[in-house]
Amino acid sequence: MADMSPIFRRKQPVVPRERLVTLIRKPGCHLCDDAQLVIEKVCADLGVSWEQKDITQDKELHDTYWEQIPVVLVDGEQHTFWRVDEGRLRKALTG
């Protein structure tokens, strides 16, 4: 008679993927400064890397985002613009 017991497999550990938050900003922008504070806090709490890019130094970014700054990208995809919600950013990075 065949063994009908279930087969148990050891679960492989889940390795979190590398995440990257990008803040697209320009000098002298107070909303950009506010966005940076939120990004710094969330990324530090979660151990996520972040970077900033200046639209005055990149024509393509300027042409794409100049009316929306600050713009936040998560893994290269637009997450939000103008105001950054801490809870929403956390959810995007942990979900």
From TrEMBL:
<dbReference type="Pfam" id="PF05768">
    <property type="entry name" value="Glrx-like"/>
</dbReference>
<dbReference type="InterPro" id="IPR008554">
    <property type="entry name" value="Glutaredoxin-like"/>
</dbReference>
<dbReference type="InterPro" id="IPR052565">
    <property type="entry name" value="Glutaredoxin-like_YDR286C"/>
</dbReference>
<dbReference type="InterPro" id="IPR036249">
    <property type="entry name" value="Thioredoxin-like_sf"/>
</dbReference>
<protein>
    <submittedName>
        <fullName>Glutaredoxin family protein</fullName>
    </submittedName>
</protein>
